[in-house]
Design a protein that fits this description.
The chain has about 750 residues and is of the alpha+beta class. About 15% of the residues lie in helices and about 45% in strands. The protein contains 12 helices and 36 strands. A hairpin with a 4-residue loop joins β24 and β25. The radius of gyration is 38 Å and the shape is extended.
C-alpha cells in the first residue's frame, strides 16, 4: 500500500509540493475527525468532487476555504489509493456563558452585548473573540462610570468538544463627578454655567438619575446647551475651545474642565429680507421676535424664521425655507441679518390616504381632518388634523406625512397612518384617597362601537362617600358639522357623614339627554335636559335648616333640570399642558313644573404661561353662584363646598365655610377660588414627562356672598405622577390663616389604578 501524505498548516503560505505527488483522479472522499460539523458542509467548502483530477492548486484552495470557515483549528489532506482523506480538528463550541459578581446589569443584557462581538452560546469558540468580549463587557461598565471594573474569564472544557465560559466580574464602585470647572468665562459665574448641565456632582437624587456619572453623550448634549445659552445671550462668537476629562488614581473621582471663549456680545443693527418675497414685508416683520437694537438671540431668530415658514406653509408653500445670513461687525459689536426667503413651489393636496385602521371606519377619521383633498397645502390644517385624530383616543400612534406625486411638481398626497389600539375595556379598579378612603370601581365600555366612533359605557363606583351607577351612550357626529348627542341613566348616592360637613344622605335617580355643538375649532356649546328624583335623609345631628327643608318639601323630590355650557379650549395638550388657556361656563337650572326650582352656575378660567423651557405657571379662578327662585329655596345638598384637593389644599375636604352647631361645614350659595401653581420638572428627572413638582398658593371662600373677607389661604408643594400603578397626586399644604374651628390636613393624596 502506498501513501502520499501532506500536512498543511495555515501560517502564511498554504501549498502542496508539486514534487510530493502526481495529480490523480479522485476515486472517493472521506472526512475524518468531525463531531458536530456535517460532512456535507465540509464537501461544500472543499471544492473538489469525485471524478475530478486533484492538483496542488486545488489542495491549497481547499485548505484555505476550510480554515476560512472558522470551524476548524487544524486541517490535513491525505491520499489513500486515490481516495482523498480530509482530517479535521474542530474548534470547540460555546456551551454556556455565565456571569459571577454582576449586579449592575441584567445577565441577558450582557449576553446581548457579547453577541455583538460574535460570542454566544452555540457558536464556535475563538480566543480572539474572547478578548473582544472582555473589552465589550468593560465598555458596558465604563458607560455606567465603573472605571475600576475587573474581568477574569475561565474556560472550562466539556465533553463532545465544548467549553463553558465563566466571566468573573469585580464591578467596583462607580466613579462620580467630583468637580466641573470652567475656564475662560468672565460674563457668567461658574455656578450659572454648571446649572445648565445635566451632568453634575453627586446630589440627593443622582443615585436614581445617574447624572453624577460621566457620559460622553451627556457631555456633548450639555455643551450644546452651553452654546445655546451663550448664543441666546448675544455671544455670536462663543466657542468651546476644548474639554478635558480626567480621573483620580483610585478611579473614584472624575474631573471635567471646559475651556470657553465667550467673545463679544452682539446687538441687532438691522434685519433685511431677500429672495422670493411672496408675503408682504410688513407681515413678515410682524413675525420677527427680534428688533433693531435687541440683543441677539438664536432662539428668537429660530422662532422668527419658523413663524415665517409656517405662514408660507399655510398658503401652500410646503417646502419653504428661510435662511438667516449674518453680517457681523466685531468692532461695534453689531450684527445685521438678511433673511433669504425661498418659498419653493406652491402645492395642493391631491389625495388623503388613510391606512392602519382595520376596525375604525374611514369616515370617522376623515371627519376630523382639516386638510381637505383638492385644497392648497396648509401647515396649520395638517397640524390641527393630527391633533383631532389623536384626540379621538382610538389610536396609539398617529402620523401624517406628505408624499410628492410622481411627475407632478405642484401636488402632494397626504398619508394618514394610524396604529389602532383596543377601544373596548372591561375594568376592575381599586383606589384610595384621603377623602374617599378605599374605592372599588368597575366599568365596561366600548368607545368606538363597531368602528363608528360612538361610545357606550356602564360604570360602577363604590366609594364610601360617593356611589355612582351609570350607563351612557354618546354619538359624536349626529350631523356632518359635528353636533353630538348623549344619553345618560344614573344612580348617585352621597353619604356626607364621612366628610367634615353637616350630616345628611342623598340618593338620586336620573336620566338625561345632552347635546354638544361646535361653534369654532376651539369653542363648543353644550346643553341638555334631565329628570331627577332625589331622596334625602337627615339625622338628629343635622342642622335645623336641613330638617326644616325635608319637613317642608318632603324626603323625596323630583326636578326637571336644564343644563347649558360653553367651553373655549386653547391648551397645547390635555395631559401635559405647558401653554394656552381654558374657559368653561356651566349653568344648571331646575325648572317648573317640578317642585324644586333652583339654579347653579360656575365660571372657570385657567391660564398656562411658559416661564422657561420646562417650567410653567398656571393661574386659575373659579366662581360659582347658586340660589332658588320662584319663592323656593336652594336645596341644601346643592350648596358649594371648599377644601381639599382641587380647591384649597391643606384643609380637610369640604370643611371650609360657615359651620353648624356641631362644627361641621354648611357650605354656601357662592364659591370663589383662586390658584397659582408653578410647575417644574422633578430634580434629576427633567426629561420624564410623567412626573412634575409644583409650588402652589390656594385661596378660597364659600358663603352667601362673594367676598374674600373670610377666605382661607394655603401654600405648599405638590407632586403629579403617572406612575406604573396609576395616577398619583400628592400635596403637602400649609394653612396660612387657619381659624380655631378649621379642620386641617397637611398631607393629601389620591391613588387609583386598574387591574
Amino acid at each position: 500500500m502506498k501513501f502520499s501524505r501532506f500536512s498543511l498548516l495555515l501560517a502564511g503560505l498554504l501549498s502542496l509540493s508539486a514534487s510530493a505527488f502526481e495529480p490523480f483522479p479522485v476515486k472517493d472522499i472521506r472526512v475524518e475527525g468531525v463531531q458536530r460539523t456535517e460532512p456535507g458542509t465540509v464537501f461544500s467548502y472543499l471544492g473538489v468532487k469525485v471524478g475530478e483530477v486533484f492538483t496542488d492548486e486545488k489542495a491549497s484552495a481547499a485548505v484555505k476555504a476550510l480554515f476560512a470557515t472558522g470551524f476548524f483549528r487544524d486541517v490535513r489532506l491525505e491520499v489513500d489509493r486515490n481516495v482523498l482523506v480530509v482530517y479535521l480538528q474542530e474548534r470547540p463550541a460555546v456551551s454556556t456563558v455565565e456571569f459571577i459578581g454582576q449586579k449592575e446589569f441584567d445577565k441577558d443584557k450582557l449576553k446581548d452585548a457579547l453577541k455583538q462581538t460574535g460570542l454566544s452560546e452555540g457558536r464556535i469558540f475563538d480566543r480572539n473573540l474572547l478578548d473582544k468580549a472582555e473589552q465589550e463587557l468593560k465598555n458596558q461598565y465604563l458607560s455606567r462610570g465603573k472605571y475600576g471594573v475587573g474581568i477574569a474569564t475561565t474556560v472550562t472544557p466539556l465533553e463532545r468538544n465544548r467549553v463553558a465560559l465563566t466571566f468573573n466580574i469585580t464591578e467596583g464602585e462607580a466613579a462620580k463627578i467630583f468637580k466641573i470647572n470652567f475656564v475662560g468665562n468672565k460674563v457668567f459665574k461658574e455656578s450659572e454655567l454648571v446649572d445648565l448641565f445635566v451632568l453634575r456632582t453627586p446630589g440627593w437624587l443622582t443615585w436614581y438619575s445617574r447624572n453624577d456619572q460621566y457620559s460622553k453623550q451627556k457631555l456633548e448634549a450639555d455643551l450644546e446647551s452651553l452654546r445655546s445659552f451663550y448664543l441666546n445671550q448675544g455671544y455670536l462668537e462663543f466657542a468651546v475651545e476644548s474639554t478635558q476629562v480626567s480621573i483620580s488614581p483610585d478611579k473614584k473621582n472624575i474631573f471635567l474642565t471646559v475651556n470657553v471663549n465667550e467673545g463679544k456680545r452682539f446687538t441687532v443693527s438691522e434685519i433685511r429680507f431677500g429672495g422670493e418675497l411672496i408675503l408682504p414685508e410688513a407681515e413678515m416683520r410682524k413675525a420677527l421676535k427680534l428688533k433693531k437694537g435687541d440683543v441677539f438671540s438664536r432662539e428668537k431668530m429660530t422662532e422668527s424664521t419658523k413663524t415665517i415658514v409656517d405662514r408660507l406653509g399655510n398658503d401652500g408653500y410646503a417646502f419653504a425655507n428661510v435662511n438667516p445670513v449674518p453680517e457681523t461687525d466685531p468692532a461695534t459689536g453689531q450684527v445685521a441679518f438678511t433673511l433669504y426667503v425661498d418659498a419653493g413651489r406652491r402645492v395642493y393636496v391631491r389625495r388623503v390616504n388613510i391606512s392602519g385602521n382595520a376596525n375604525t371606519r374611514d369616515e370617522v377619521i376623515r371627519r376630523e381632518l382639516r386638510q381637505l383633498e383638492g385644497s392648497w397645502y396648509s401647515t396649520d390644517q395638517l397640524k390641527r388634523s393630527k391633533q383631532r385624530v389623536d384626540k379621538l383616543g382610538y389610536f396609539s400612534e398617529v402620523n401624517i406625512d406628505t408624499v410628492n406625486v410622481a411627475g407632478v411638481p405642484d401636488q402632494v398626497d397626504v398619508e394618514v397612518k394610524v396604529v389602532e389600539r383596543p377601544t373596548g375595556q372591561l375594568l376592575l379598579g381599586v383606589g384610595f384617597s384621603t377623602a374617599e378612603k378605599v374605592i372599588l370601581s368597575g366599568s365596561i365600555s366600548q368607545n368606538n362601537l363597531f368602528g363608528t366612533g360612538n361610545a357606550l359605557s356602564l360604570q360602577v363606583n363604590s366609594g364610601s362617600i360617593n356611589r355612582v351607577y351609570a350607563i351612557s351612550y354618546n354619538s359624536p357626529y349626529v350631523t356632518d358639522d359635528g353636533v353630538s348627542t348623549g344619553y345618560d341613566f344614573y344612580k348617585r348616592n352621597v353619604d356626607a357623614t364621612g366628610l367634615s360637613v353637616s350630616q345628611y344622605k342623598t340618593a338620586t335617580l336620573g336620566t338625561g339627554i345632552r347635546f354638544g355643538v361646535p361653534v369654532t375649532e376651539f369653542d363648543t356649546v353644550n346643553y341638555g335636559l334631565a329628570v331627577e328624583s332625589t331622596n334625602v335623609e337627615t339625622f338628629s345631628t343635622s342642622p335645623q335648616q336641613y330638617i326644616d327643608f325635608v319637613n317642608t318639601f318632603g324626603p323625596r323630590n323630583s326636578a326637571l333640570i336644564t343644563t347649558a355650557g360653553y367651553t373655549h379650549d386653547l391648551r397645547d395638550s390635555v395631559i401635559y399642558t405647558t401653554r394656552g388657556s381654558l374657559q368653561r361656563i356651566n349653568l344648571e337650572a331646575a325648572v317648573p313644573p317640578a317642585k324644586l326650582q333652583y339654579y347653579r352656575s360656575t365660571y372657570q378660567v385657567q391660564w398656562w404661561l411658559p416661564v422657561a423651557r420646562e417650567d410653567t405657571l398656571q393661574l386659575s379662578a373659579l366662581l360659582g353662584y347658586a340660589d332658588g327662585y320662584g319663592a323656593k329655596p336652594l336645596p341644601f345638598y346643592k350648596n358649594y363646598y371648599l377644601g381639599g384637593v382641587g380647591t384649597v389644599r391643606g384643609f380637610e375636604t369640604s370643611s371650609i365655610g360657615p359651620k353648624d352647631t356641631q362644627g361641621n361645614a354648611l357650605g354656601g350659595r357662592t364659591e370663589l377660588v383662586a390658584n397659582a401653581e408653578f410647575f417644574f420638572p422633578f430634580p434629576g428627572l427633567e426629561k420624564d414627562k410623567s412626573v412634575r413638582l409644583s409650588a402652589f398658593l390656594d385661596a378660597g371662600s364659600v358663603g352667601d356672598t362673594f367676598t374674600f373677607v373670610d377666605a382661607r389661604y394655603a401654600s405648599g408643594l405638590a407632586l403629579s405622577w403617572y406612575s406604573p400603578v396609576g395616577p398619583i397626586k400628592i400635596s403637602l399644604g400649609f394653612a396660612l390663616n387657619p381659624k380655631p374651628e378649621d379642620k386641617l390636613q397637611k398631607f393629601q393624596f389620591s391613588l387609583g389604578t386598574v387591574f
